[in-house]
């Protein structure tokens, strides 16, 4: 899959020697990686490998014990950094959707626009409608999350994140909580985003998506990056034994 | 409709209406029965019941005034207290926790008596301490006299505020932390997330215990009678001490409290039902 204008070495995300522990559990051990503008990086690995932790460090939902994270040139660990401003540029989609149940789909999408970006109601709703069309469910604008299927909820969640017009989109196992027949509709939206040149970091087990959209796949295990390469290389000739073991378990 | 919505109830409309009527009416019936009993007593033997009722009317107004006034302040204190206990600042968290633990450990009656009798002496001592250096402030403290109504509302607010703080705290904590994460991920500040995402949901969750606290408060307001506040209970005592008609007086007082509490219980239930309409189908 070809992408335009991605040769730029502009690093949107740079992580250097990141370490993070939860009590005695070492979730991240000396992790170093980067993501260029417009790149799609998919992170795979067994549970407990630290992939979700790594993702959550990018928008400061988790704080590193040591190491550096620089997002769009802004170091997250700096005290002077306005984290809220950074978070407005980094959109996140969660495994559990985390839609606001007391608001309609439209209100879910307009809330942050009005409160953080200070857009007017009309402007915010216009953008929200456009995004709902983009993700394929404009007719559900006034439905409450409880009235939507899992796939629809996740698409609203993606629209909600996109409404802030972020520079980076993070996906934390976006389809893992979905019934199989709804996974494709969400992956299709993500594929479109990738084609449009969004910088994406995706934690997922969906190998089909990785093959179709990823520029790089990172394999993590027990807090470390084991292997980092293109999808073709990873699936045909993985270099490390642990990678081979993991792939043999999930590719069936 | 999506594939996940439940199919429409197949119960015929009349039965559904009757069912709802039965659920609602059964309890309002109790309210009506209590009111009916009061009216019956007044009509059947106006002497003494009509006299008692007329004498108690001012007390009813005062009880409601105290309850409603206090409750507004209690909600405010409860919200800040609850948020305080969840604060990341150890100072705020410490103060809020101390407040809750201490106040919950002392009976309301004792707190009311303290505010009424002990507080003026404390003010006087503070005033005397300040006099040599800041005579204006010192004089203000010495002259500070609490009205009975103010003392009552103050005492009740401080006491119930502690319990309300715990209710708010539990309500806020019951909201899945993913909600806060989603809100913060969109760039909202902690305050914005609380205001637009967490608290609106928490309010729905705590409506039953808050309604319960209101009814408990209505009954506990009878304690302010020891503070020379002319509420329903005190009026009852005054009438009884004049006429020695203890049975008739207290029956009437009890019935009136019953009508008040039952009414508010019903109203709270109705409010709960209305607020849950947006959440469930």
**Class computed from helices, strands and strand pairing of chain A:** alpha/beta
Rg for CA atoms of chain A: 18 Å
Principal-axis shape of chain B equals flat
Q: Between the first and last Cα atoms of chain B, what is the distance in angstroms? A: 12 Å
* Chain oligomer state: heterodimer
Characteristic key phrases:
heterodimer, A: 252 residues, alpha/beta, 6-stranded mixed β-sheet, 4-stranded antiparallel β-sheet, disordered N terminus, B: 281 residues, mainly alpha, 10 helices, 0% strand, flat
Describe the protein's architecture and organization.
Chain A is 37% helix and 25% strand. Chain A has 252 residues and is an alpha/beta fold. In chain A, strands 6-7-8-3-9-10 form a 6-stranded mixed sheet, with helices on both faces. In chain A, strands 2-1-4-5 form a 4-stranded antiparallel sheet, covered by helices on one side. Chain B is mainly α and 281 residues long. Helix content of chain B is 81%, strand content 0%. Chain B is built from 10 helices and no strands. The mean pLDDT of chain B is 86. Classes of the chains: A alpha/beta (252), B mainly alpha (281). The interface between A and B is medium-sized, with 32 and 26 residues.
Question: How are the SSEs ordered, and which strands pair?
Answer:
The complex is a heterodimer of chains A (252) and B (281).
Chain A: E1 11-22, E2 25-36, E3 40-44, H1 51-58, E4 66-71, E5 74-75, H2 83-89, E6 90-93, H3 105-115, H4 121-134, H5 150-162, E7 168-172, H6 180-195, E8 199-203, H7 207-213, E9 216-221, E10 224-229, H8 231-236, H9 241-250
Parallel strand pairs in A: 3-8, 3-9, 6-7, 7-8
Antiparallel strand pairs in A: 1-2, 1-4, 4-5, 9-10
Chain B: H1 13-44, H2 46-85, H3 90-104, H4 108-130, H5 135-143, H6 148-174, H7 177-185, H8 190-220, H9 232-243, H10 246-275
In short:
The complex is a heterodimer of chains A (252) and B (281). In chain A, 37% of the residues lie in helices and 25% in strands.
């Amino acid at each position: 899959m070809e992408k335009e204008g991605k040769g730029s070495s502009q690093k949107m995300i740079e992580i250097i020697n990141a370490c993070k522990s939860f009590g005695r559990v070492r979730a991240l051990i000396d992790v170093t990686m980067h993501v260029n503008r417009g790149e799609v990086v998919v992170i795979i690995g067994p549970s407990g490998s630290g992939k979700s932790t790594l993702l959550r460090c990018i928008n400061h939902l988790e704080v590193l014990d040591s190491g550096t994270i620089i997002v769009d040139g802004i170091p997250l660990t700096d005290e002077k950094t306005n984290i809220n401003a950074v978070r407005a540029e980094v959109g996140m989609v969660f495994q559990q959707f985390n839609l606001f149940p007391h608001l309609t789909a439209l209100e879910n999408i307009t809330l942050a626009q009005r409160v953080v970006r200070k857009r007017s109601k009309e402007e915010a709703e216009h953008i929200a409608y456009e995004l709902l069309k983009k993700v394929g469910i404009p007719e559900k604008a006034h439905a409450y999350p409880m009235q939507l299927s899992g796939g629809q909820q996740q698409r609203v969640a993606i629209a909600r994140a996109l409404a802030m017009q972020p520079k980076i989109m993070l996906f934390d196992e976006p389809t893992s909580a979905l019934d199989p027949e709804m996974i494709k509709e969400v992956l299709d939206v993500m594929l479109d985003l990738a084609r449009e040149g969004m910088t994406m970091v995706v934690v997922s087990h969906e190998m089909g998506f990785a093959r179709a959209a990823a520029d790089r796949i990172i394999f993590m295990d027990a807090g470390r990056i084991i292997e980092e390469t293109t999808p073709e290389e990873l699936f045909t000739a993985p270099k490390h034994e642990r990678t081979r073991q993991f792939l043999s378990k999930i590719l069936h | 409709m999506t594939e996940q919505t439940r199919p429409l109830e197949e119960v015929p409309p009349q039965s559904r209406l009757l069912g709802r009527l039965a659920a609602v009416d059964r309890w309002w019936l109790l309210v009506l029965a209590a009111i009916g009993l009061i009216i019956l007593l007044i009509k059947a033997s106006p002497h003494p019941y009509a006299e008692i009722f007329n004498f108690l009317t001012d007390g009813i107004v005062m009880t409601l005034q105290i309850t409603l006034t206090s409750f507004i302040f209690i909600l405010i204190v409860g919200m800040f207290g609850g948020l305080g206990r969840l604060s990341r600042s150890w100072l705020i968290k410490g103060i809020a926790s101390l407040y809750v633990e201490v106040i919950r450990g002392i009976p309301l009656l004792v707190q009311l008596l303290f505010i009424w009798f002990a507080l003026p002496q404390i003010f006087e001592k503070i005033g005397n301490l300040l006099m040599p250096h800041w005579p204006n402030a010192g004089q203000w403290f010495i002259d500070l006299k609490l009205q009975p109504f103010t003392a009552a509302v103050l005492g009740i607010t401080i006491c119930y505020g502690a319990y309300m703080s715990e209710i708010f705290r539990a309500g806020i904590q019951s909201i899945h932390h993913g909600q806060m994460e989603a809100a913060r991920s969109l760039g909202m500040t902690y305050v914005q997330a609380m205001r637009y995402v967490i608290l609106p949901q928490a309010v729905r969750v705590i409506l039953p215990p808050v309604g319960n606290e209101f009814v408990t408060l209505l009954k506990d307001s009878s304690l302010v009678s020891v503070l020379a506040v002319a509420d329903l209970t005190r009026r009852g005592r005054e009438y009884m001490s004049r006429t020695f008609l203890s049975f008739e007086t207290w029956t009437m007082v009890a019935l009136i409290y019953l009508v008040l509490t039952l009414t508010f219980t019903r109203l709270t239930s109705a409010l709960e039902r209305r607020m849950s309409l947006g959440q469930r189908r």
